[in-house]
Write a sequence for this structure.
């Protein structure tokens, strides 16, 4: 069989696909010789014309090997939306089995020999059959089998969930919480900027938590949804023996590293690097900060770990040298120490630190 | 203990049941929002062979806001400062509730493999990393050997 014949069969098949599918549903990639080598189609469940009730979709990728359609194509499924890994795997193996069925049939080779024209039809049918097969799967599992990326629980009958424009699924309740929090963050960040740097439109755009595509939702109505069923029913967590063992190992490693000077000493570092201001005498004489409270500094909205570093906290500093108590003290701080910080040093030094930290913040927020 | 969001419980259970290779995160006994973390230095990086201890804290509105993470073990890296604070966009403005403790820690591990001196947090380290990379890498290896190896 000559190359030209194969080419023609493939071209015919693609022409047929183009006729059946919409432009945005079909993506044909060609190699440098201009031969098609990969057909991508986005497949949705068969819910008729009602795209609103199509909750799942998947991209079917058919790699055409040299010698196709006499040689079975390679099938892969990408960008599954609303489908969990097991379902996707099942669909994949089903599709592969179907391909083998076709190849294994001796009738098929005869057909190729004798009825060249039928082969074209066959080839067309083949891709369409594959698509249909996968569509069947999708239709069957048209309730998202995946979990909500926000609460990490599944979707149950009775759960209210939202499909984004990008085909990601969230419990409406969870999505509302995300959008509200993101908008709050946006407003806070805007307020921190000097006026000329602020977003002139001052318009917050919600994005999908999974793919960061812009999404448009009615937050009000999302909020009216009840919390997810599984979240409510989940069992409580308790510390297991295994966990305790791991905790012990961690604590032991900490001590070993501490003995060799490998642990960041926040007091020392604070004095050396952060509290280095000419305009604030006495800064270095303030009480040191126990290790482990640093995370509180982050929690402070204005990011002023420097102020935090300088807080004279007599109770804490008296314990500071007592490293055996490190763990419990540290946690205590993370829990309760939150609002006790950052009330001092409202004088000149603060502006200085702010400048320093604004710089840090700027570099930190630069996207990679 | 105050009511812990189910998501935190679920993440903790999964961290225990399906641990990520090279990463362990264990909640503390008295505060389930505070995690003791060990990240191993990635292969073929100057941090290879190191066991780096970090602390991770899930704030009140987690997962709507990012976990607070900090290196506890000393590390020589242009994007990690002397206090162990990390310059990583997903911990700041690029946070998404679809990220998890495990993905955050994987990103931090990836940052060890790919230091970015053009976006520095530790200026002196970044400077050396730019003008004399081999010396910077030597320093990073030396710090890893001195502070983070467990033998």
């Amino acid at each position: 069989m000559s190359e030209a014949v194969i080419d023609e069969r493939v071209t015919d098949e693609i022409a047929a696909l183009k006729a059946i599918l919409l432009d945005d549903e079909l993506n044909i990639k060609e190699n440098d010789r201009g031969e098609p080598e990969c057909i991508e189609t986005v497949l949705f469940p068969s819910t008729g014309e009602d795209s609103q009730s199509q909750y799942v979709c998947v991209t079917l990728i058919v790699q055409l090997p040299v010698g196709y359609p006499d040689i079975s194509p390679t099938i892969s499924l990408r960008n599954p939306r609303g489908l969990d890994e097991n379902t996707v795997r099942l669909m994949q193996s089903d599709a592969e089995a179907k391909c083998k069925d076709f190849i294994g049939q001796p009738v098929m080779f005869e057909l190729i020999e004798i009825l060249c024209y039928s082969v074209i039809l066959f080839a067309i049918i083949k891709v369409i059959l594959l698509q249909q097969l996968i569509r069947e799967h999708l239709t069957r599992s048209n309730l998202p089998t995946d979990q909500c990326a926000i609460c990490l629980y599944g979707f149950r009958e009775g759960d209210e969930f939202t499909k984004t424009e990008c085909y990601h699924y969230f419990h409406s309740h969870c999505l509302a919480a995300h959008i509200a929090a993101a908008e709050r963050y946006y407003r806070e960040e805007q307020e921190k900027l000097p006026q000329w740097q602020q977003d002139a439109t001052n318009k917050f755009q919600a994005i999908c938590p999974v793919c960061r595509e812009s999404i448009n939702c009615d937050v009000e109505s999302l909020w009216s949804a009840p919390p997810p069923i599984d979240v409510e029913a989940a069992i409580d967590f308790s510390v297991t023996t295994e966990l305790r063992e791991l905790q012990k190992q961690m604590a032991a490693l900490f001590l070993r590293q501490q003995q060799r000077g490998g642990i960041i000493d926040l007091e020392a570092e604070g004095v050396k690097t952060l509290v280095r201001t000419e305009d604030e005498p006495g800064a270095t004489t303030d009480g040191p900060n126990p290790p482990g409270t640093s995370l509180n500094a982050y929690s402070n909205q204005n990011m002023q770990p420097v102020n935090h570093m300088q807080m004279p906290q007599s109770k804490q500093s008296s314990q500071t040298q007592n490293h055996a108590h490190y763990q419990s003290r540290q946690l205590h701080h993370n829990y309760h120490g939150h609002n006790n910080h950052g009330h001092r040093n409202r004088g000149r030094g603060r502006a200085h630190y702010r400048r320093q930290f604004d710089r840090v913040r700027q570099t930190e927020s630069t996207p990679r | 203990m105050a009511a812990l969001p189910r998501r935190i419980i679920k993440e903790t259970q999964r961290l225990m049941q399906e641990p990520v290779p090279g990463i362990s995160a264990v909640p503390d006994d008295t505060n389930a929002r505070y995690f003791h973390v060990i990240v191993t230095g990635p292969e073929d990086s100057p941090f290879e062979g190191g066991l780096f201890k970090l602390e991770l804290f899930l704030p009140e509105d987690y997962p709507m806001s990012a976990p607070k993470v900090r290196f506890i073990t000393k590390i020589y890296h242009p994007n990690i400062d002397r206090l162990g604070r990390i310059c990583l966009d997903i911990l700041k403005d690029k946070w998404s509730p679809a990220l998890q403790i495990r993905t955050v820690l994987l990103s931090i591990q990836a940052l060890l493999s790919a230091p970015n001196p053009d976006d520095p947090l530790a200026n002196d380290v970044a400077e050396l990393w730019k003008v004399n990379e081999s010396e910077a890498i030597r320093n990073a290896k030396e710090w890893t050997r001195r502070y983070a190896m467990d033998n």
User: Anything to note?
Assistant: DSSP finds four helices and four strands in chain B.
